[in-house]
Amino acid sequence: QVQLVESGGGLVQAGGSLRLSCAASGITFNAYYMGWFRQPPGKERTFVAGISRSGGSTYFADSVKGRFTISRDNAKNTVYLQMNSLKPDDTAVYYCAARWKSDVSVTSGYNYWGQGTQVTVSS
Q1: H-helix or E-strand spanning residue 83
Q2: How far is Cα 41 from Cα 122, in angstroms, rounded to an integer?
Q3: All residues at 6 or more sequence positions from 14 whose CB lies less than 8 Å from its CB, including other chains
Q4: I want to staple 52 with a disulfide (CB 3.0 to 4.6 A). Which of 13, 57, 96, 107 is the partner?
């Protein structure tokens, strides 16, 4: 059984910070690319950030570059999303995802998904 479990969401004021965590089980964690996606209320899910198997390469959506960082701890089977300088437009349900394939765009091809964690940024 494969499980991805997100945590760390909550309510924060504009300009504040949150760190999301995603704990994985049931997969060989260091064999998977990991990503974060988000879905604002009433809108489609979009790519936020991705990280390679060793953590050596990272990728970010233009909307979060310079504000968010992604990292992973393969010994703990966990991927993180550090979110700084948060804006109300960052309000969304944030999802963790994992993929084995590496021959497609970092924004697609994810095999497994978490249930999501709510992030709300107030103005």
Answers
A1: strand 78-83
A2: 14
A3: 86, 87, 88, 121, 122, 123
A4: 57
Question: Which amino acid is present at 109?
Answer: G
**How far is the CA of 51 from the CAs of 15, 20, 30, 55, 102, in angstroms?**
25, 14, 11, 6, 11
For the segment 56-88, what is each residue's pLDDT rounded down to a tens digit? 999 999 999 999 999 999 999 999 999 999 999
pLDDT of 10 higher than 90: yes
- Asked whether 1 and 16 are in contact (CB, 8 A), the reply is no
* d(C-alpha 29, C-alpha 66), whole Å: 27
Closest CA to 92 of 47, 52, 55: 47
- Cβ atoms of 72 and 96 within 8 Å: the answer is no
Which pair of structure tokens corresponds to residue 108?
């697609």
